Amino acid sequence: MAKTIKRNIDLIIAVGIGLSLLIVAMIGIYQSVSIIPVSYVSAATSTDITVSATVQEWLTLGVSTSSVGLTPDLVDAAGNTAIGTSTAINITVGTNNGSGWHLDLSSANGALKAPASYYIYTCDTTSTISAGTDMYGVNATTSDPDVDIKDYYDYWGQNIVGTASTTPQTLADKNTPNTSTTVATMEIKAACDSAQPAGTYTDTLTITATGGVS
């Protein structure tokens, strides 16, 4: 009986040791598996694209008419004198120049000239014009508070004119850009005495727009 019990105890011990070894082995395997590092593949590359776009500087000029007559006649068929005035001439300017724009005014003759070389001369700077006196010139106005009509010409609504000289004079300017819009309105006036020889008197005025204030 004692031998039988001993054998059972030995068997139990052997089984226990075997189970213990099995558990230890499994724990070792689990730990070995759990500490195997997981490797993630990370592959990336990049390149740059340079983008460019061009904005060109631009400047536009428009005038509402290319020909104008002065009315009434400076001297009528009865010898009466009057101040002849043109209709309002609108000047349109647009630019993206950061310094704005300016307008120059010049005359081909510095006078209204008849084919027989008779003249009605312009004033030197600014003068009051009246019927029966020899005078020719321009005045102007604007509805834009940022446009500066120059002193020679800033007499809209009055019988005062600035020179229409062969030397370009600044009519108006503005120191900021704007879209194409009406920036100034001008009119032309002339008068002469009743003894002025008969004929059609003409001149060509040139308006030049330039980027940047003068």
Per the CATH scheme, the topology name of the largest domain is Immunoglobulin-like
Number of strands: 13
Mean pLDDT across every amino acid position: 89
Taking the sheet with the most strands, its summary is: 5 strands, antiparallel
Walk me through the structure:
- With 214 residues, this protein is α+β, with helices and mostly antiparallel strands.
- It has two domains: 1-36; 59-211, Immunoglobulin-like, CATH 2.60.40.
- Helices cover 15% and strands 32% of the residues.
- It contains one helix and 13 strands.
- The strands form four sheets. Strands 1, 2, 3, 8 and 12 form a five-stranded antiparallel beta sheet that branches. Strands 9-11-4-13 form a four-stranded antiparallel beta sheet, with no helix packed on it.
- The chain is elongated, with a radius of gyration of 48 Å.
- It starts with a helix and ends with a strand.
